[in-house]
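Example A, followed by Example B.
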Amino acid sequence: MKYQKDVLQPEDIALCESVQRGLRSKGYNQGRFIIDRDLTELSEHAVHHFQTLVMRAVGGEIEDGSRS
């Protein structure tokens, strides 16, 4: 418990604060997913594709604003 309180928690707080600062930066363009087919280990393109298929199947609105 001491390690968690003295090491992990301060690291987590610093990390969360850093992410929040980055989200407010002008260089960040917010989106739902990380899409990069060249870096598949980091990318969520498969999740995005699956959700697009589901939206089309149920007749919902797709990211580009079109309806299926």
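Example B, a separate protein, is given below in the same form.
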Amino acid sequence: MPKDPQLERYVLRVSVICSFFFAIAGIVVGYWLSSAFILFDGIYSFLSVIMSWISLRAGVYMLTTDKRFPFGKSLIEPLIILFQYGVLLYVIVDAFLGAIDDVRSGGNELVLGGALVGYLIAQVLVWLSFDAISPYVDPVMLIIITLWLVKTPLIEMWTAIKELIGMNTETPYSKQITLTILQVAHHYDVLKTYVRTTKSGNMLFIEIDLVVPKDYQYDKIAEQDRIRQKIEDALTFLPYEKWLTISFTQDNRWAE
């Protein structure tokens, strides 16, 4: 079923409030422990909160009617996503390079090395007389977490770019969409069917070109509108808003 914009905004609002307190706590604790790892986690979380707030405001704006956007405001969502994850990617790369620099300069001594689970490792190394290794725990953990996190912004940014330039964006329903349309088209004696889809935010644009025979029995506008309605009804399983365009032609060149 289609997404509920009001429910999405409520969940996002609660997430922003909760994440804000965790982010501030992370920054304070990271600074107190002189831990680049915890400080990064706090800053990353804080930026995520800011980005969520931006998404919340953008979501409210997208629901308003504006004649300047004849095709809707769905492109705003991938634009916001591209900006958000671009900022997060910058923070991740900066933290990674900083951790590399810490390793090269001899590591990072923690104020309270055994205070948290991750830093218990450093204390154990000291107990085992591996004092020379313990300063590297914090930057190495930061390197590991940044390498693990970097995949998400790269994927999300590439997805947003594809939506912005109108590429054919695959969804979990892509094959089902094509199969459903072909079944309806076959029932109404369509010779050839062209299906083109692209997604922008929560809007799925579907263009369907139906090539029909010259003596097509459903040649009246009212009959073709009924076929359009059949196709629309068959696509109700999609959890997106749909921008559906269905054209009939007897000349294949208008459909290719």
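On Example B: The beta strands are 192-200, 203-211, 241-249.
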